[in-house]
Amino acid sequence: MTWLVTGGAGYIGAHIVQAMRSEGKTVVVLDDLSTGHATRIDGVPLVHGSVLDYQLVEHTLRRHAVTGIVHLAAKKQVDESVRLPLYYYRENVEGLRRLLEAAIATDVEAIVFSSSAAVYGAPTESWVTEDTQCSPINPYGHTKLTGEWMVEAAAAAAGLRYANLRYFNVAGCSSPTLADLGGANIVPMVLRRLDAQQAPMIFGDSYPTQDGTCVRDYVHVADIASAHAAAANALAGGDIKALTANIGTGVGYSVREIVETLRVITGHESDAWAEPIVAPARAGDPPRVVAATDRIRDALGWRARHDVGQMLTSAWEGWVANRGR
Q1: Which CATH class is domain 172-216+250-321?
Q2: Topology alike, domains 2-170+218-247 and 172-216+250-321
Q3: Which residues, listed in sequence order, are joined to residue 112 by a DSSP beta bridge?
Q4: Is 140 annotated in the active site?
Q5: What does pTM read for this prediction?
Q6: Rounded CA gap, 265 and 261, in Å?
Q7: I need a labelling partner for 238 at 20 to 30 A (CA). Which of 7, 86, 113, 285 fits?
Q8: What is the CATH T-level fold of the domain 2-170+218-247, as seen in this structure?
């Protein structure tokens, strides 16, 4: 099969492209390069454009004889989605609708949709299963849940095989060239400030958690990539026809714990200036979201292989290697 990876030049997408290529898969990337970098996917055909451009998408699928899609292209900042909900619905929902329309028109057989733990909203369970009620609390989460429904409905109507993968908080890198250099995720946010000898920021410390800060399931991006590759393999082989599954570790860490670990890794654990500053909580952030991962283990034989120390150390090494970029 030839796989189209939308958003494949982005931080997560490039790791997925790397994982799929390492298994010998033929991959084509479609990316508007708004946050992606072409240098991350050297040697892979890159189509520069948006999934909103139906004609470009259909032409790409036909030209490269694509039979499977991994769809990552989306906007993903929770607080931005609260401020710009219609923008998020256009990019994430309408973009996916046009992609699915083109996929069906060109006889694509399978799609892996990158969803999110944001579909659960603010669950009360200690571990979130796929049967936990989906009640998103921000527009980003709404767009991801709507995306899952669209994939399921299109698959039922057209005979597509699909996997909706709900991943939790992603960090780390498999090599410095693929490091997360953005400013929206907590780990690069903290690293940027520590490297500039500025106190890291914690958004809210009055949540109902052990230390008042949000608790999340942090998963290494290489594990996210291997889960997508495993799903693609299972869909290509017909081993699964429909799957909705979490990608996580099953272990929760608070924001304060992540910040303190990064202070140690960067050598700033004893520096008074590196004590975190508590800022107001951000709109749309739930207190605790930690994955139960039994379903993906049973369906695909997949489990996370990196611990939080490996993940944060790799993030720091990638940050150091890319200083000044």
Answers
A1: alpha beta
A2: no
A3: 70, 163
A4: yes
A5: 0.94
A6: 6
A7: 7
A8: Rossmann fold (3.40.50)
